[in-house]
Amino acid sequence: MSGTVRWGILATGGIAATFTKDLLGLPDAEVVAVASRTEESARAFAERFGIERAYGSWAELVADEAVDVVYVATPHSAHYEATALALRAGKHVLCEKAFTLDARQAGELVELARERGLFLMEAMWTYLNPVVRRMTELVRDGAIGEIRTVQADFGFAGDVGPEHRLRNPALGGGALLDLGVYPVSFAQLLLGEPDRVQADALLSPEGTDLNTGMLLGWDSGATALLSCSIVGHHPTMATVIGTRGRIDFPHSFFHPDHFLLYRADAADPAPEKIVTGPGPQGLSGMQYEAVEVMRALRAGETESPLVPLDGSLAVMRTLDAVRDRIGVRYPSDSVVEPTA
Description:
The chain is an alpha/beta fold. It has helices at 14-23, 39-49, 58-62, 79-88, 103-116, 125-128, 130-140, 175-191, 287-298, 309-326, and strands spanning 5-10, 29-35, 53-55, 69-72, 92-95, 120-122, 147-155, 196-203, 209-217, 223-229, 238-242, 245-249, 259-263, 272-274.
């Protein structure tokens, strides 16, 4: 694939709008179609962003021959259905996180994409943020020695009722898949899949997690202390502690603009502030996902080395383990969907 990459947007919610705005800021990307479950919603989205075609069904979007890659922006409870539909139609896919409701669903999508030679990537924008990428380079080069502890949290106090997607088990509700995926992904970016998982949580009357704490352990001796919540305002900080220093993300670790590097052997105890320069004006940071997708497609790659599918599967296995420990079950847990 060369030249302009043509995108189809599947779903019309807030995250789809943010991604589309960033996408329209890229000179080598074109948004050619959008789909929703209702034509009215699709048309309103298309008019807002100047998109030529609006469809009232997902099937029409994935059948559009002008679409090269589909961005799946539904709630995560529909990620499996939407992504499988696009892959079976021969479309490349960028799917929002959490990748799916569980590791089984994620594994089936990865198997389907690999069987058909199609590109598939989880939209974990944190991994593609330039500041985070610089952090991983420094850690790999030994700037803080061997990692001993990772700490990360993500939470807010939301006034949501039992019918809201954040509390509805049928929609994959709870803090874990909506917010906890970020600290878990952050820890596993640095340490890989944990060898041990412990967790505790406050559950809603519906059985979804409102406030969850996690302790992950590795045979290396490293640990990760992680938390997520939809009933408490968290600072959304992250810290990586090593044998020779530490790295602090004071806020918004999932899309940071800087971090602080403390070196234990430095003559000056003050931290070094690491930035990568301002991003394009008016863009949120989601454009880095699109840039990586388009780079991979032009290179003929079906997976991104920066957001590898095996890594996404490992995160889903950890999220499954946490749900098992805290007793959160979804209706889909007992349902096996066909893969063809």
